[in-house]
């Protein structure tokens, strides 16, 4: 067993993202446990973090791996000198970037990042409010204010996708459930007509849909594989007959679904 | 004007995260526009991306910067050979990681990543459902199922924080609004009693709160600076008198608030 550390002067989300991307390349070959150390924003905290890293190495009998994003050079050096393989984003990329841009880095990440994100924050909050108010077919009269309207059968991933679009990109996303009656009629539900350019469909394999619904209403007709098969087949045919682009969410993370939708619809991002 | 590219065989979220962290170090010194090219999952798409990068360089008269995460070595080489400064995560970090772990990388990022995330996906969906059902003081009888209960005055950031905790970490977070009446009584609202170990407070500078409320209800008493000052002062005193830890969200992104809460309460993450 080996310990992976994520160390940062802020949230450590970047360090975790980097670590997970890289470790996915070695999946199944290594057993490890993960430790996140955020807010290492002083030399004292960096020294404590370095000591924790060394202690883990001694306890494991394996050299720890450290994914870090430390803007402050002295703190970074303290971590790099620990007895671990340290992969630090700034250590590797800051120098070539500095040469290309012809400017020195500011060093104080936290502050500059916070300030630059204020308008971004407001876009996100506005978009979250919008997605909550327009979840599951609510307030359809506002649909001309939506940048995207996600449609799909119950439990195909509409709500998480809309929330992610709002939180990550500040995009105002509504969602509308396609019910059995809609499917049988073969017609677009009335509130969606006139908004076809804004619609994006979700579909999902019937087996996976049944297992998700089973958790919600065990043993119900709603969760039966037969019912899920019919709904999935018919909703896909509805998408095709009305030229609605759609994506199969079965093996996708929320991030992947949202990114596909942004790309497929050419949506503009309002937040970074 | 210079163009920054984010190139990936998947969503490009990691590449964007890396780019934004690094570019924050040069904020105000460089003007640039951003182009994201996700799903570069074939040599053909890599060649098209490289051509777009070169064309941007010619049009700008400035060498583009490329932040990329390409697991497949031949595609990666095509991008690296474009006329740009290419900072590729895998190019730099994969080799030292391979030596440390003693295994070769799998190369097919997308697939391995998707499969490993299924249980993570389910935690997130469950947590999102929970946070939507327990938003803004709803279903208080379920509070023993919450891992954390965010409290605060209206518009202090409770809902976005709960949604982010659910989406990013799979944590079941409820939220409860502290109203004027609660504040005046000086007592903890009845539904919160018996859950003190799960409570986490939010506060915010009165000026910022007033400006957020002003967008919602312009010219109202609710949005006035006087009202906001009173509510903020009294809610902080409520936190202190009941030993509720709290964080000031004024200059924080949603990510930062959520990470602080996770750290401060020692919450376990259920999703990666």
Main sheet overview of chain A: 4 strands, parallel
Q: Please report which band the strand proportion of chain A falls in: under 5%, 5-15%, 15-25%, 25-35%, 35-45% or over 45%.
A: 5-15%
Q: Largest contact between protein chains? A: A-B, 76 and 77 residues
What's the helical proportion of residues of chain A?
40-55%
Oligomer: homodimer
Shape of chain A: elongated
Keywords, separated by commas or semicolons:
homodimer, 272 residues, alpha/beta, 4-stranded parallel beta sheet, 11 helices, 8 strands
Describe it.
The structure is a homodimer of 272-residue chains. Chain A has 272 residues and is an alpha/beta fold. The first copy, chain A, has helices at 13-23, 43-60, 73-80, 89-101, 109-116, 118-133, 158-169, 180-185, 206-216, 225-241, 254-265; strands spanning 2-8, 32-37, 65-69, 85-88, 148-152, 173-177, 199-203, 246-248. In chain A, the strands form 2 sheets. The first copy, chain A, has a 4-stranded parallel sheet with strand order 2-1-3-4, sandwiched between helices. A 4-stranded parallel sheet of chain A has the order 6-5-7-8, sandwiched between helices. In chain A, helix 2 (43-60) packs parallel to helix 3 (73-80). The relative contact order of chain A is 0.10. At the A-B interface, helix 1, helix 4, helix 5, helix 6 and helix 7 of A face helix 1, helix 4, helix 5, helix 6 and helix 7 of B.
Give a topology summary.
2 copies of one chain form a homodimer.
Chain A: E1 2-8, H1 13-23, E2 32-37, H2 43-60, E3 65-69, H3 73-80, E4 85-88, H4 89-101, H5 109-116, H6 118-133, E5 148-152, H7 158-169, E6 173-177, H8 180-185, E7 199-203, H9 206-216, H10 225-241, E8 246-248, H11 254-265
Parallel strand pairs in A: 1-2, 1-3, 3-4, 5-6, 5-7, 7-8
Helix pairs in contact in A: 2-3, 6-7, 7-11, 9-10
């Amino acid at each position: 067993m080996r310990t992976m550390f994520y160390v940062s002067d802020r949230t450590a989300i970047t360090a975790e993202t980097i670590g997970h991307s890289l470790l996915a390349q070695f999946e199944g070959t290594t057993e490890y446990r993960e430790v996140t150390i955020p807010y290492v924003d002083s030399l004292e905290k960096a020294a404590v973090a370095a000591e924790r890293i060394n202690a883990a190495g001694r306890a494991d009998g394996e050299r720890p791996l450290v994914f870090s994003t430390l803007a402050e050079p002295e703190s970074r050096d303290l971590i790099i000198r620990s007895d671990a393989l340290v992969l630090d984003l700034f250590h590797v990329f800051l120098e070539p970037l500095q040469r290309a841009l012809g400017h020195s880095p500011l060093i104080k990440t936290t502050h500059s990042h916070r300030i630059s994100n204020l308008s971004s924050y407001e876009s996100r909050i506005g978009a979250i409010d919008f997605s909550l108010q327009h979840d599951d077919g609510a307030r359809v009269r506002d649909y001309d204010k939506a940048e995207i309207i996600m449609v799909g059968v119950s439990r195909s991933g509409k709500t998480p996708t809309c929330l992610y679009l709002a939180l990550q990109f500040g995009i105002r996303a509504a969602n509308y459930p396609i019910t059995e009656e809609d499917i049988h009629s073969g017609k677009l539900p009335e509130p969606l007509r006139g908004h076809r350019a804004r619609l994006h469909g979700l579909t999902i394999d019937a087996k996976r849909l049944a297992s998700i619904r089973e958790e919600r209403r065990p043993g119900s007709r709603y969760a039966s594989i037969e019912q899920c098969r019919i709904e999935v087949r018919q909703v896909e045919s509805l998408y095709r007959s009305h030229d609605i682009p759609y994506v199969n969410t079965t093996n996708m993370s929320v991030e992947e679904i949202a990114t596909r939708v942004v790309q497929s619809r050419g949506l503009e991002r309002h937040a970074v």
